[in-house]
Amino acid sequence: MPQQERDFIGGILDRFMGRTPPSPRPAPPKPPPAITPGTSQYELTKAQDDARNNPAFAPRQDGTTFCNRATCEIVQRMKGPMGALTYPKGEYAVANDAGRYLAIDAKPDRPGQWRVVPPEDAQRLANEGIVVVGVQRNTGRDAQGGHKHGHMATVRPELIPGLAQSLGRAPIVNNIGARRTIEPGETAFREDGGPVIYYTPRRR
Question: pTM for this structure?
């Protein structure tokens, strides 16, 4: 007997016997909305995915990582300002230096190209397809007396806008360093490091 016919007969018997039929199953959750190709959100996620999957940015066995190069290439792909992310001859600045240059550039009393935004605004802007760079400078020194490296990453657009904020995990970042992952900024940056400052271009 076909299943549909069995269900029909079973429904008649349930009514006749006074039994309550089982409640209908809830509809399965809808898949998260895809980011539409051609939008700024798509371009940002594509630039981040390409950088995260680039073998040139994989951590080396000696511990060398490439968060600065990866971040700079993402910003460059998104046509963001590069002056505060590079040295005078155009080389990509390491994270500590980029953090220092960005802090100077973003001062309210100067006409710089970057501005500081709070973490919740950083996620909102990334959701709109606007590049946001998070930087954590490291003032510590290693055993040889040299400065320890800082870290930098770009904020990742959410597939479901507002979800990370509702879970208290915003912003999420495209992390490229010792790990190459998409994760909350609170886990991507060092707990024992300095504050994480988020910057976005003044003009878009």
Answer: 0.80
**pLDDT score of 182:** 96
Structural domain count of the chain: 1
Q: What does the pLDDT look like over 151-195, one tens digit per residue?
A: 999 999 998 888 888 888 889 999 999 999 999 999 999 876 789
Tell me the two tokens of residue 94. Answer: 């390491």
DSSP state of 144: T
Q: Mapping DSSP to helix (H, G, I), strand (E, B) and coil, where does residue 141 land?
A: strand
Q: Cα–Cα distance between 78 and 165 in angstroms, integer?
A: 24
Domain with residue 49: its CATH number is: 3.90.1720.10
How far from chain centre, in Å, is Cα 175? Answer: 7
Q: Which of 196, 146, 148 is nearest to 175 (CA)?
A: 196
CB-CB contact of 82 with 112 (8 Å): no
Neighbours of 103 (CB within 10 A): 17
